[in-house]
Amino acid sequence: MKCHLNEQEIEENKGGLIIFSATINVTVNTDVVAFFYLGLSGAGCVPEDEAYIPTYLEAFPPLPEKGTPGEKTGEPASAWGSKIRPIKASVITQVFHVPLEERRYKDNSQFGEGEEAKVCLDIMQRTGAHIELSLAKDQGLSIMVTGKLDSVMKARKEIVARLQTQASATVAIPKEHHRFVIGKNGEKLQELELKTATKIAIPRPDDPSANIRITGTKEGIEKARHEILLISAEQDKRAVERLSLEKAFHPFIAGAHNRLVQELSQETGARISIPPPSLPKDEIVITGEKEAVALALSRIRAIYDDKKRKTTTISVEVKKSQHKYIIGPKGNTLQEILEATGVSVEMPPLDSGSETIILRGEPDKLGPALTQVYAKAKSVMVVEVTAPAWLHRFIIGKKGQNIGRITQQLPRVHIEFTDGEERISLEGPTEEVEQAQAQIQEIIKDLLVRMDYTEVFIDQRFHRHLIGKNGTNINRIKEQYKVSVRIPQDSERSGLVRIEGDPKGVQLARRELIEMVQRMENERTKDLIVEQKFHRTIIGQKGEKIKEVRDKFPEVIINFPDPSQKSDIVQLRGPKNEVEKCAKFLQKIIADLIENSFSLSVPIFKQFHKNIIGKGGANIKKIREETNTKIDLPTENSNSEMIVITGKKSNCEAARDRILAIQRELANIKEMEVTIPAKLHNSLIGSKGCLVRSIMEDCGGVHIHFPSEGSGSDKVTIRGPVGEVEKAKKQLLQLAEEKQVSNFTAELQAKPEYHKFLIGRGGANIRRVRDRTGARIIFPSPDDTEQELITIVGKEEAVRQAQKELESLVKNLDDVVEDSMVVDVRHHRHFVCRRGQVLRELAEEYGGVAVSFPRTGANSQKVTLKGAKDCVEAAKKRIQEIIEDLESQVSVEVAIPQRYHRAVMGPKGCRIQHITREHEVQIKFPERDDSAAGQEAPPQENGEVSPEAEFVPRKCDIITISGRAEKCEVAKAALLALVPITEDVKVSYELHRYIIGQKGSGIRKMMEEYEVNIWVPQPERQLDVIKVTGLVANVERAKQGLLDRVKELQAEQEDRALRSFKVTMSVDPKFHPKIIGRKGAVISQIRKDHDVSIQFPDKGDEQQDLIVISGYERNVEEARQSIQQLVAELQEMVSQDVHLDPRTHARIIGARGKAIRKLMEEFKVDIRFPQPGSDEPDKVTVTGLPETVDNAIDHLLNLEEEYMLSVTETETLAAYMKPPSRYGGGPGGVGGADDSGGPAKGFVVRDAPWNAAGNKAPDMSSAEDFPTFGTGVAPKQTSAWGPKKF
């Protein structure tokens, strides 16, 4: 049986008993409990610091002899038992016992009915686990918990807390053993508490007490006490010795490459820790069993005494620069000398100025060791050549050509240029270094004759202007004069600009730079105050307008504030004269904007808005263009009648006059001005405009416009139909006179349903009251909050009289009476049809009177009316009028082909509803006859009957109109006017698909806009005609719209022909990625700048070098030149490989590539690191201009050197540190692992079955002997860039 103990297979409760949670049935008794108790506390879970090696029977005690259910007999038992079946149950069961003395509730009269049962029920409801209680013979409590793992764990925790009592005890062990009980980071203590289900309190280090307190169940306390004493006993067997020996003799004790100390550790079993050479400590620490430590101590003292007696020292002076060659990489050369000669070489610290090296060893061996030291020191020669720093890049040559020739001839020579210093270091074998020195001195001599340099001081604030946008200015100077110009970085805070190159070119470049600076010194800055709301207008869409200004004044820099700053300051900077000109130009634009921001509103009757818009927006478009204004109309579903005009004041007034002229032509509209003192305006308007609104409603919806408050004007404008304007003028002047003479107001409350009756049909009732009294009566509008409030305004006497009359009317309305009248049964349907619409209208008009008709089939003519007396009488009179109309009704038939019925009805029957309301008639459509649909005659086209057949009316074509004879005739004419016609529009077949639009969107929009049906022939027929069907007026509009669209499409075709110009250019495929740029940024910018399409070859194309550019001819040519210029720049670039230690790659790249991206941006280069698994893992490729590549490589090498110091230091420390062992692999621990850094030996037992004669140890790589849970996943190769993101 494989012993594998974990949290899922073994659980302990606070009572200290084992709880099984597996799929195997287990019988729990005291023997088994005792066995597991011993197994866990003894050999099964050996602490990390214990040295005891258990026997196989101790580690894996046998189960009882009795066979388990389901066990097969007759099969030979293996030493490892049967194969382990995988655990896959999601529901587990745990059983544990609470002794009588630890039960919290013991006074139950009947088991299962007391507090324990209530607690269990509560726990079951809260956790979802199932709990069963049983009582043992000793009155102890057995508890079985079943459910999912998390539910069982929660339930068990609550059971222990609520059903079991706690105890405590103390155990005393030496104070120095406390840390072993706690363990590393408290892990051992946590493990003990979990295993024994107790709480263990260990005194603090500053507490003199040695007692450890244990709290928990009695059995758990005993287990914890046993474990603690066991740990203390183990520590009594261990020892630690600290031995201080001179640091100089440590290498002899450690041996070459630490081999001697490793052998000592293996032989003695003790762990020996010698401080590394870089650590200024002389203390050697030995740990392990007492006997092993004593043996190791004696051996080390013997080595020390022997070397102290036999060795002597000699001192030699060696140049400091040669010390690193004696030390060697990671100190290997010193170790080699120690191994070969037995002599220790002591080097002075690298940061000290001392050049003295001490050799320590036996006298006869010091000679050979000294020879080796001198040989290593002189194996490499270092020479410095003096050369001006500005000449370094010329010595290196373009793309490293000059220095490359030397390094190819003399590959073992390392040449190093120090930035900013006038020296070049050469390092390598003596003969080769001398040859390289001579060649470099020859190059320097030649360059000093041909090259020159100069330095000029330029204020740092001008540097970025000298460089220009994207380096245009400085690159032009470099190319024109064949010089190199070095402008210091902003971080350097230096104004010194250096020019190097041909002597004549240097002087010319210097002169031009000074001239540029003088021009810039003449610059000035000016701030313009511009309201922020105008900023976007000045900039224009996508910056088009401000680009025009910048093109006009190229030397002026215009800066707008960030929108979030809420600033009105626009800054101009440039030459004084140009700034002044630009400021005047911008001020003129701003003045125009302010002038054009004037706005006024014009009230226009809603029904005339469509006429102002005109066919296809022709009228409004013409007014906008001719007056240069912006005109906004309210939306169709808005109640507003105001049209807003924006622009120059004079233009706005001209546009307003033209719009009003259209309205006057259409409706005989008259405009009149009335002079009323300004002080009366507010009182005439009334609260929330109620007074002026009542006049406008009373006078047929005229518009009354008062001047704005504070203007001082007395002119009030009245606009509307001629008769209504005169009426409104009269009422307005009368009201003004009343306000001047005596302004008296009274209020009256009346139910809203009475208002219509009080007003009367067409305002007849209220008009009579006004005429008799002379007072003005104002009813609330639907938007007013006080719907019952009626306001009376006028002279006091007139107001009192009107109030009295209205109160009398309201009082009569409150007196409800019931009356009846006789109505012929044949007319009943007219009143109750359409859900009683006629009855609802009667109720609204006559003060909420209730009219009841008898039920259908009752054969009664009696109609009951209930309501106010006056209302009932008025309603009876109105019903009688309706009956007279019904009796005088006639029916007229109209023959319209059935296929047009839907068009005649309109959307949701709106057209028919309009005719019935307007002409007070009833219209009835016939039932649809689908069988006759195929027999219909050809359609009417252009208002004429098709000559092929004459229209013969059928029953399904007859529409019946009912009403008064004269109204039926008018309604008939209106219906016939709704019959659609069809007209042909000649449109080229090639344009059909553009008219239809994507997924029919274009043609659908036209049909909705013009309210027509447009038929386009099938593509295979290739007809040059489109049919338009609809009302005559709509068809005419649609035809015009269609022809306009055709003109637009033809213009677009011509434009497409011009845009189809193509040019093919050949570009080496290696430059394609650079032309495209990161995420397509470069090519997208070229496309955007030149408005062209650029196509690169696909992967499978034969000609991989061809790039196709299409667009306008001029734009294509400009785009081609841009690409050629880009390619020319790319051809100047070089790629150079540099070898960097792979251990430094991750740090150079940085988190998520942040560091390397910053480096690439700083040096303007591209840096590529090798892929994981590459043949050359240290090869890094740098691409860019020669200068930037060299600078970037120098920087990378500096970073490598810096990072390698920390890498070397970490590895050196790691060499003296043993990684923690999982199985107590410390000195003296189980397994006895040595300091060689090899793998741990694992869990070791004595007297195992495979050690017996004839037996064989199981194969640990065999899946049969050691089955695995699930499938292993091979580790992925990781890159220096970190894991891949998906």
TrEMBL record:
UniProtKB keywords: Acetylation, Cholesterol metabolism, Coiled coil, Cytoplasm, HDL, Lipid metabolism, Lipid transport, Nucleus, Phosphoprotein, Repeat, RNA-binding, Steroid metabolism, Sterol metabolism, Transport
Compositionally biased tracts (Gly residues): 1226-1235
Record GO biological process: cholesterol metabolic process; lipid transport
CC annotations in GO: cytoplasm; high-density lipoprotein particle; nucleus
Record GO terms (molecular function): mRNA binding
PROSITE patterns, A to Z: KH_TYPE_1 (PS50084)
Region: Disordered, residue numbers: 928-947, 1226-1245, 1251-1286
Cellular location(s): Cytoplasm; Nucleus
Span of domain K Homology: 165-233, 237-305, 310-378, 379-445, 450-518, 522-591, 596-664, 668-737, 742-811, 815-884, 888-980, 981-1047, 1059-1128, 1132-1201
Coiled coil: 792-819, 1109-1136
SUPFAM superfamilies xrefs: Eukaryotic type KH-domain (KH-domain type I) (SSF54791)
PANTHER family per UniProt: HIGH DENSITY LIPOPROTEIN-BINDING PROTEIN B, SCP160
Known function: Appears to play a role in cell sterol metabolism. It may function to protect cells from over-accumulation of cholesterol.
Protein name per UniProt: Vigilin
Lineage, top ranks: Eukaryota, Metazoa, Chordata, Craniata, Vertebrata
Gene coding for it: hdlbpb
